[in-house]
User: Which sequence fits this backbone?
């Protein structure tokens, strides 16, 4: 193959691939050190140049190249930080989807043009299409995953992960098997390439649909778990029951301070509190200052937020 490097196109493709990896391995996780963040950014920046260098200057079997790329994904997982299980799943899913997209684009290109993508221009066109598709997928993946708590991901059974992860891989393997077989029958095989490409798109859409349903399953499951936990734990304050015993004990509130705090949480002013409890307004102010000091709340609205809806104790 006479492959000539196009520097401007390489820079564009490197940028597209960098953004894709940045969304999947940097934005989704919180790196625990500045050194890791810098190393991760650097590794993502050289991802494509490194891949192209191996492709151009080293003659090795495809299986070896697959293993090397898998090792590169492991490095990304290590540098990404966060929960390793989720990072590993992201790496596997990225690998599977990328493999499926590459095969789909190759089949479509061959089917529409009637030629295998072996020239530099053809390969760049194919790579640009596949990298852009990967970026679009990464935006979709990021938009779905960024709203899911880590604890929700860790509670889901492994069999659901397998369904999501293996769908694109199985599709890619099926297409790749046909793709290699069709190379030997190019004269009569272009329509078959086109068919494989559209069949691959169908598989990919099915994969995205399964993934979307899977994410909804996680969200619904987490919502049920949170609802059960909230039902087991009484709220800090309710109009019917007042402040919870846990809140009173934690901050060491006296009986009168508890009464003043509950009246405040009902939205009463200092004068209304003094009237309802039959004490002086100055006494109410003293009680409130002691409540603020004990709870750490700097004022009326901060205390309302501290004992507000959604807090439990």
Assistant:
């Amino acid at each position: 193959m006479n492959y000539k490097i196009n520097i401007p196109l390489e820079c564009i493709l490197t940028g597209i691939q960098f953004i894709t990896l940045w969304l999947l391995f940097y934005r989704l996780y919180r790196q625990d050190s500045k050194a890791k963040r810098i190393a991760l950014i650097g590794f993502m920046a050289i991802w494509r140049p490194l891949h192209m260098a191996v492709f151009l200057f080293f003659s090795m079997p495809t299986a070896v190249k697959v293993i090397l790329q898998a090792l590169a994904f492991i490095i990304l997982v290590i540098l990404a930080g966060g929960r390793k299980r989720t990072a590993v799943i992201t790496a596997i899913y990225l690998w599977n989807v990328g493999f499926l997209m590459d095969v789909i684009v190759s089949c479509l290109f061959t089917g529409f043009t009637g030629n295998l993508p072996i020239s530099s221009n053809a390969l760049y066109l194919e790579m640009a299409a596949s990298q852009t598709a990967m970026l679009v997928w990464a935006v979709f993946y990021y938009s779905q995953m960024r709203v899911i708590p880590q604890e929700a991901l860790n509670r889901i059974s492994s069999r659901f992960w397998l369904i999501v992860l293996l769908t694109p891989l199985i599709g890619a393997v099926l297409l790749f098997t046909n793709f290699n077989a069709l190379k030997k029958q190019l004269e009569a095989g272009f329509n078959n390439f086109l068919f494989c490409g559209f069949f691959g798109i169908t598989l990919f859409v099915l994969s995205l649909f399964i993934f979307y349903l899977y994410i909804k399953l996680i969200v619904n499951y987490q919502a049920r778990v949170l609802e059960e936990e909230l039902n087991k734990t009484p709220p800090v304050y309710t109009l019917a029951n007042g402040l919870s015993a846990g809140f009173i004990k934690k901050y060491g509130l006296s009986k009168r301070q508890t009464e003043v705090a509950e009246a405040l949480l009902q939205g009463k002013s200092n004068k209304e509190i003094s009237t309802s409890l039959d004490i002086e307004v100055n006494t109410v102010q003293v009680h409130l200052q002691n409540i603020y000091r004990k709870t750490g709340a700097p004022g009326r609205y901060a205390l309302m937020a501290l004992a507000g809806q959604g807090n439990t104790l």
